[in-house]
Amino acid sequence: MILGPPEQIDSATRAFCATISPETPFYVPVRPAPASKPAYCFDNSVTYAQANGGEAVYGWAIWHWPGRWFEAEHHAVWRSPDGDLLDVTPQAGDPVRVLFLPDPSAPYDPSTFRPNIMAPDGDSADVREYIALVAQRGDITRTYWEPGMDVLPLFSAEDQRRLDPIDARMAELRAAIA
């Protein structure tokens, strides 16, 4: 499953965004720069600004799986010297636009990990349980994170024992809600 940007900025989308930032979300076109790498939006935006002027703008990419959940991912886009915004980072699923929620209180800091923020879209008990398990899993795996880390290292045997049932239940729930 690949989340995509919400089809429209409706009341549910605005309500989710309001829990994260008081700013107004808006669509930003996606046109990956030739040297940009997926998942490196902060580096991509800064590098593009250095080469073309402008600056990186920080906030959140808002993703949606209709009827399941909303998800906010810490993100950066490029602001041209003329003030236009462009997402220069390749995105999963190749969307033509992303829903961007500016957040001046969430600049990029390589020493600070900002986890994705999730909220259910609807009343599904399975979705609520899945989101709770994502948070539980993150509480365990986040302790392994270090600045500049691309992938998590191997987990301790104790943490792997804690993760195994969480991962198994998440797989069951993903199958049930798909």
Task: Describe the overall structure.
The protein is of the alpha+beta class. The protein folds into 2 domains: 109 residues, no CATH class; 55 residues. It is 33% helix and 21% strand. It contains 4 helices and 6 strands. Strands 1, 2, 3, 4, 5 and 6 form a 6-stranded antiparallel β-sheet that branches. Strand 2 and strand 3 form a beta hairpin. The longest helix is centred in the last third of the chain and has 21 residues. It is globular, with a radius of gyration of 17 Å. It starts with 10 loop residues before the first helix and ends with a helix. The model has no long low-confidence stretch (mean pLDDT 95).
Please tag this protein with its features:
single chain; 178 residues; alpha+beta; six-stranded antiparallel β-sheet; 4 helices; 33% helix; 21% strand
In brief, what are we looking at here?
This protein is α+β, with helices and mostly antiparallel strands and about 180 residues long.
Strand content: 15-25%
Quaternary status:
single chain
Radius of gyration: 17 Å
Helix content bin: 25-40%
